[in-house]
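Protocol step 4 of 6: structure prediction from sequence.
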Amino acid sequence: MLSARSLFQEILDNDESFRLFCSIAASGESQGGWENGRIAALVPPGERELAPKIARHGADEDKHGRIFHALLKKRGLQPVEIPPETDYTMLLEKYGIGLAHEKLSDDQPLTVQDIVTYLAHSRVTEQRASEQMELLRKHFSDDPDIGRAVRMISNDEDNHLAYCHEELLRFAYAGHGRAIQRTLRESALAEIRVYRDVSLAVMDHMGRILGWSRAKAATLAAGIHAVYAYERLVGWRRMVALRMPERRGALSGPAQAAPEFA
């Protein structure tokens, strides 16, 4: 019987599929670290109090990338170049979601609207990251190989999501509510499309590595399309709602150090 646990366990147990999984995850986290680092450096003068929080966000993402590399090293594996169709972060940029790398590579300060766009995009993508890590934590929190990494990353992603809620509400109260809702909706609809496409691409690669039957591959693809249909109809709404989080000031203070993996 197919389940999230059995599927991931199969990927975890095979060196080549595990190597691809960790390489994709590490690439996305490292890219997020760079983006947040540049945004922190370019925060407009009137929002400088945000800079340490954005930098902390970037430091967490960098840490996650190092954790995935450490998991590979622990098994004596090297990262692989990820197929472009599995590059979630770059595909989001291609669809115009978030701040363009060209802008982040410049030294011109960002505008307040840029920061609102960044936070709205992050609120959507961190929703996805938080849910994915919660799923892994549910099934693999006590796993001797990846449990500690899963718990740490999951906690960080929950912090990132809480921070996005809190800061977006602050900007909404300051008069940016309509821009925030418009950007959230655009980002959510684009993200669910990219997530579907990346999920199909990743499962296609995993299927070839693990030798899945056509029936199994078709079943998984049908499941991905079903999730997309639900999200396109109503599920996207969970990505645009804003509420004051229980975790206030979630990104205040320094990032927690990455654990050592023997």
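Step 5 (inspection) to follow. The CA atoms of residues 160 and 219 lie 33 Å apart.
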